[in-house]
Amino acid sequence: MSVPDKVSTGIRGFDGIIDKLRLGDNVVWQADDIESYKKVVLPFTAQAHSDGRQLIYVRFGRHAPLLDDEMAEVETIDASRGFESFATAVHSLIEQKGRYAFYVFDCLTDLLDCWYSDLMIRNFFKVTCPFLFELDTIAYFSIQRSAHTYSTIAGIRETTQLLLDLYSVEGESYIHPLKVWQRYSPTMFFPHLIKGQEAVCVTASAQVAGLFSSIDRSGRPLDYLGKVKENIAAFPDQADEQKRLLLSMLVGSDSRMRTLCERFFSLEDLQMIASRLIGTGRIGGKSVGMLVARMILEKEGRDRFVPFMEPHDSFYIGSDVFYTYIVQNGWWELRTRQKTRDGYYKYAGELKEKLLSGQFPSDIQEQFVQMLEYFGQFPIIVRSSSLLEDNFGNAFAGKYDSVFCVNQGTPKERFEAFEQAVRFVYASAMNEDALAYREKRGLLGSDEQMAILVQRVSGDYYEQNFFPHIAGVGNSSNLYVWDKDIDGEAGMLRLVFGLGTRAVGRMIGDYARIVSLDDPTALLPMALEDVRRFSQHEVDLLSLKENLPDTVAVDEALDYDIKADKSLFATVDQAAAARLRELGYMRKKTSYILSFKRLLEETEFPSLMKDMLALLSGTYSYPVDIEFTANFANDDSFKINLVQCRPLQTRGFGQTVPMPDVV
Predict the structure, then answer these.
(1) What is the pLDDT of residues 600-631, one digit of tens each?
(2) Predicted pLDDT of residue 227
(3) What are 451's strand-pairing partners?
């Protein structure tokens, strides 16, 4: 059977205005309410039946149904599962129905109630519309007037074939074409009064002005988050409801972490987080863990921790930006293939390469610029914060990447370096270790958008370098119990001088200081002559001169004026000094061992860390794993910066093994 290229809207007069519809057309109706949209859907449906077309009604909205199962094939798709799940389900449906199928979609504005994001509605349309066009379908969509940002409307206008304004004024219906692809007539873009099957073009200036002036256009094109902020200010009596909404937008649905957030975040706390959000979407697991831990210490620890805590001023790149980056660069089809069972590993490498070279939307770039202006030339770190990361059951520890931006150079150079750091973190979502981790834990079908945490690096400038005095990781359960007298529940630290990279990762031939918090000065069993061997020999730092992370020897780092007493961290290597004297080298520089002896014996630092880990694990009702830095003054006072907290992931404790007798 031949398929005619031109198709009727079901309204004869309007067909004459736009020279009918064409196969491949996506038709977007901008209306004030769902009833207005229904007035154009019903004649289109009747015409489709008359022409013997296959008509599918895609049902996902919260509004009353537009059609029933006698009028169309009703396909209900759950939008609450998230953008990727919804977009993939719609794509599969379109693929299954094949060429020449006709579609009616619910009002896209209802997706805001599930996704809280104009950006994602734009993304959905941009990935769905071309596929419908490719299969010679005709699809009706609707958006609510004044409910979306200019950029969302612009994205839809750019992608669709027809964009039509639909007005109801004093009981009369008007259609005003805004875009009609590849058709033109001298009166096409005038408003038209619809009377049954007739369409009357309104050309008189007085009549058009009277019509348009009666339409309320006072609504500002705020995004969903902007509207929520306005409502918080306008309706203070709805604080509890607004708090729940912000939690859903920034944190996500019900989970153990969500429960902690409900307990410790006030509405004002959530508003502060939202004010530092770039784009839209959730802030991700790493950001949530860091923020919740800080709130626990502040609100449950009373005055124990606050005097010792370094403030933070982090920014959050919302998870929606990740998908927008993929959609805007035309990689969504590749992403869809990679998410299949057969393509999971097959296409990961190709997608990873593309993620390293894309362009960000201009509005996101502008927000990047404003954030970088805020930080100035201060070093920052760009850290992964995926939706599943640092959560109960799924830590993803070490699976995704973090990137230091030393942040030196011209504004243009600093911006380009930051953009590339974000790309690098996005690309790490395709790391083989991360893919295997998700597969092993049955997470292939889970939405794993990548949000990003941007933190100011803790530390100070020392000559041409930047680093904190100490950094490390802490566990509320001691995983290094080497003696029966050690209390495994007192917690432990892996402590280093400089950046914490050497505490997080293992370095061949270099060792972090293991601190058992029930007895901080206790050393691992070793011979006296091995103390230097099993200590830290190199220090990671940020080189301002090279604008790159760098590594120097411990003695070189301690040769700087570090604005604190070096004896807190280092002791003189007496054995090395004696050997040099024996050899007659009297002018050689003093050699040090990073023992942290005075720090652990004479300051409040170890007891504070012990109490901190105990409070966090007690509140989590679960062992925790933290990352921290600390900086000291000349009077030995200090400030701790808690940069990460997550439920501790282990394989469990092994069986006790008896030690053999030493011969």
Answers:
(1) 999 999 999 999 999 999 999 999 999 999 99
(2) 82
(3) 385
With CA atoms as reference, report the closest residue to 457 among 500, 396, 395, 511: 500
Q: What pLDDT digit, counting tens, does each position of 63-79 carry?
A: 999 999 999 999 999 99
Decide if 555 contacts 591 (C-beta within 8 A). yes
Take residue 309 and report the two structure tokens written for it. 């805590």
Arithmetic mean of pLDDT over the chain: 89
Contact 284, 320 (CB under 8 A): no
Q: In what order do the strands lie in the sheet with 315-317?
A: 277-278, 315-317, 450-456, 380-386, 402-405
pLDDT: which is higher, 38 or 226? 38
pLDDT band at 390; cut points 50, 70, 90: low
pLDDT of amino acid 170: 79
Q: What is the pLDDT of residue 438?
A: 83
Which residues, 6 or more positions from 33, have their beta carbon under 8 angstroms from its beta carbon?
Answer: 144, 168
Instruction: Report the first-to-last Cα separation within the chain, whole angstroms.
Output: 93
What is the DSSP pairing of strand 380-386 with strand 102-107? unpaired
pTM of the model: 0.88
DSSP 541-586: EEETTTTEEEEEEHHHHHTS--SS-GGGT-EE-HHHHHHHHHTT--
**Alpha-carbon gap, residue 365 to 488, rounded angstroms:** 48
Burial of 302 (0-12, 13-18, 19+ CB in 10 A): exposed
E strand or H helix at 317: strand 315-317
Kindly state the DSSP code that residue 591 receives in the 8-state scheme: P
Strands 162-169, 172-180: pairing is: antiparallel
- Are 647 and 623 contacting, i.e. CB atoms less than 8 angstroms apart? yes
| Residue 344 CB contacts under 8 Å (≥ 6 apart), including other chains | 338, 435, 439, 444
pLDDT at 203: 76
CA distance 54 to 393: 46
Token pair of 61 as six digits: 């909205």
Query: CB 150: neighbour CB atoms within 10 A?
Result: 10
Q: Which of 42-51, 140-149, 573-582, 628-637 has the lowest mean pLDDT?
A: 573-582
Q: Which of 306, 239, 327, 314 is nearest to 274 (CA)?
A: 314
Contacts of 450 by beta carbon, 8 Å cutoff, 6+ apart: 284, 319, 322, 384, 385, 386, 400, 425, 426, 429
Where b means 16+ CB within 10 Å and e means fewer, 510-526 reads bbbbbbbbbebeebeee
Nearest to 108 by CA among 42, 160, 59: 59
Q: Looking up tokens 């008007």, which residue turns up?
A: 174
Residue 19, burial from CB neighbour count under 10 angstroms (0-12, 13-18, 19+): middle
Can you say how many angstroms the Cα of residue 463 is from the centroid of all Cα atoms in its chain? 35
Per-residue pLDDT at 1: 41
Task: Show the tokens assigned to 605.
Answer: 């630092």
Residue 654 has pLDDT above 90, yes or no: no
Instruction: Give the number of residues written for the chain.
Output: 663
Q: Look-up: residue for tokens 């909404």?
A: 245
User: Is the separation of the CB atoms in 491 and 473 below 8 Å?
Assistant: no
Residue 423 CB neighbour total at 10 angstroms? 20
For 97-106, 426-435, 607-616, 631-640, which range has the lowest pLDDT when averaged over its residues? 426-435
Query: Shortest CA distance to 33 belongs to which of 112, 144, 108, 113?
Result: 144
Query: Which region holds residue 252: left if phi is over 0, alpha if psi is between -120 and 50, else beta?
Result: left
CA distance 375 to 277: 15
Which has the closest alpha carbon to 257: 595, 569, 622? 622
Judged against a pLDDT cut of 80, whether residue 395 lies above it is answered with no
CA–CA–CA angle 299, 300, 304 (5° rounding):
95
Q: How sure is the predictor about 661, in pLDDT bands with cuts at 50, 70 and 90?
A: confident
Nearest alpha-carbon partner for 173 in 7, 18, 43, 67: 43
